[in-house]
Amino acid sequence: MKDIFRYLQQIGQSLMLPVSVLPAAGLLFRFGEKDLLNMPAVRDAGMAVFANLPLLFAVGVAIGFSQGQAVAALAAVIGHLIFLAVLKSVNPSIDMGVFSGIVMGLIAAVLYRQFHQMKLPHVLGFFAGKRFVPIATAVAGVVMALLLQIVWPVIQLGIDGIGHLAVNSSVGPALFAAGKRLLIPIGLHHVYYPAFLYEFGHFITPDGTLIRGDFNRYFAGDPTAGIFMASEFPIMMFGLPAAAFAIYYNARPERRKVVAGLMISGALTSFLTGITEPIEFAFIFVAPSLFIFHVLMAGVSGLMTSWLDIHLGFTFSASFIDYLLSYKYGHNQLWIWPVGISIGALYFIVFHLAINHFQLKTPGREDESLPDHEPDTFRRAYNIVKALGGAENIKALDACISRLRVSVKQRESVRKQDFPALGAVGIMEMGTNFQFIFGTQSDGLKEEISKMIGKDFVEEQLTEAYVPTPIQDVRINAPVSGRLIQEGGRIPDYTVAIATRDDSCLAPAAGRVTQVCSNPASLLMRVEPHYQLMIQVELESPALSAALQFLVSEGQEITVGQKILSLSNPREHAESIVRINITGGKEIHITPAEEVTAGEDIIMQCMD
C-alpha cells in the first residue's frame, strides 16, 4: 500500500513539470489575441503548448521516474510519437488525451531503469546501455498501441460516463474543489484533478477537432467549459488569504512580526499565483477541525459558482493573474467578487473564533516559537541535512512547488521536531518517505541540499558557525606515461588527456570507485574531500575493447598508484588516449610538462 501511495505521489509530482509551462503558454495565447496585441503568431505559440500536453506529460513523467535522466525523456518522446502513429493507423477514432502521455512516460522510465546498463555482444556494442532504452521504448510504443486499441474504448466509455455526470451536475464543481483540498495533506491532489481538467467533457471546434477537458475546452472557446476551474477562485483569492490574516491577527503580540512575514507573503502568494500550501499547512495538522471546515467551504464554493453559472479558467491556478488572463472567455465573471468576499469573511470569522476558543497552536501561538529571523538558504539547508540524520541517511531527494520530498534510510534518525524552527509549516510521513512543506522555497532548498550531498558535506566538515572547509589540495598523478594534452574546460570541471602506449592504468589518486563502465571504458571515483574523478580510455582500435580488463569494482576503496585497468592482449604501437576529468574545487593547476610518467608526475593540483 505504501508503494502504491508513493508511486501515485510521484506521478502527481512528475506532472507538475509540464504544468509549470502552462502559465507562459497562457500569456502567449492571451497576448496574441485580437483584443490585445493581435498577433496570430504569438497566439499560436501558446496554442502549440496546449495542443501537445500529452507529449509534455510523457516527458514530465519519464523525467520524474528516472531521476531526471535525459535518455528517459528522449525515449518517452520517441515512444509517444510511435504510439500515436500506430494507434491512428489501427483505430483513428481513439483519442486517449493526456493519458497516452502518462502511459508512455511510465513505460520509458521503467525501461530506462531496466536497460540503461544493459550489455550486448561486442558486434552490437554501440547499441548497449542507454542507447538501447529509446529502441526498447519504440517497440513498447507499438505493442501498447496494439493492446490499447482493444482495451481503451471500454475505459473511455467509463471516463465519458463519469465526465458526463460531473459536467452536467451542479455538484460536479463542488466535488472537484473539495476533493482536491481533501487530498492536499497526502500530496495526491495532483493525481486527482487531471481527469477534470484534461479529460471530462468534450467539444468539437469549427474545424472538426475534438477537444477534451475543462481546461482545453475553455481556451478553445467552449461556452460550457470553465465550471470546474471557477470553483477554486473564491477559495484561493479570498478564503485562504482571509485565513492567513486571522492566523496573523491571533498570534501573540511579540510574535506577530515574524508571523506577518509568513502569513502576509502566503496570502499574497495565494491571491496572485494560487499557490496555497504554505497557508494550508499552517493549520492542517494543528487544527484538523479547521481543515474540515476548509474542505467543506471548497465544496460550498463549487456549489455557489455552479448555481450562479460562473465560468472561469486558469493556466496554472485560480489566482488573480489567471482571472485577468482568462476573463475574456468567461461567463458571469464579476460574480466571483461578491462570492469570494462572502467566503473570505466567513473564513476570517470561523478561524478567529476557533483559534481563540480552542486555543489552537497556529503559527505565533505555539509553545516553541518561530525563529526571530530568516536564516540564509545555505544555513537552513545544512540544518535540514543534520535534522534528516546526515547526508548518509538521505536516499532520495526531490521537490515540487511547495514540498521538499525526502526518502531516508533510517526513519528513526530523522529529528522531526527540528523542522518547524527551520521553516517547515507541515510534515507528511509515510514509512521512510517524508514531505516537508517549505512553500516556494522548497526547490531552492533541494538544490542546495543536493550540492551538499554531492560534495559529502557532513557535520565534521562544517562547524556550527558555518565556517567553510579549510583549504585542502588534492594532487592527481599521471595514471599512464605519455604525451600530455590539455583539453581544458571551465572550473570546477576540467579535463586533461594523455596519449600513451602503456598497457595498464594506475589510480591517479586515492578514493572510492563509484562506477565502472566497459562501453565506453571508463571509471568514476570519489576523491576526498569532495572531488569526482573520471578516467576514460579511448583505444586506437575498437577491436581492442574486448581486451580491456578492469581490476577494481564498484564500491572498492583504492590507493594512489594501484593498478586499476590493463590490456590483457596488448599490441605494439597501438596508441590510446586516457582522459582524466575532475569536478570540484575553486582552483585547478595543470602541470606545464609535455611528457609525464605514470605514478611519478603530478598532472593536476586542485584546491578549494
Explain what this protein looks like in three dimensions.
The chain is α+β, with helices and mostly antiparallel strands and 608 residues long. The protein folds into three domains: 2-224, no CATH class; 377-461, 2-Layer Sandwich (Gyrase A, domain 2), CATH 3.30.1360.60; 473-607, Glucose Permease (Domain IIA), CATH 2.70.70. It is built from 20 helices and 20 strands. The strands form five sheets. Strands 15-11-12-13-17-9-8-19 form an eight-stranded antiparallel sheet, with no helix packed on it. The protein has a four-stranded antiparallel sheet with strand order 3-4-6-5, with helices on both faces. Keywords: Cell membrane, Kinase, Membrane, Phosphotransferase system, Sugar transport, Transferase, Transmembrane, Transmembrane helix, Transport. It comes from Pelosinus fermentans B4. Its main location: membrane. Residues 2-367 form the PTS EIIC type-1 domain.
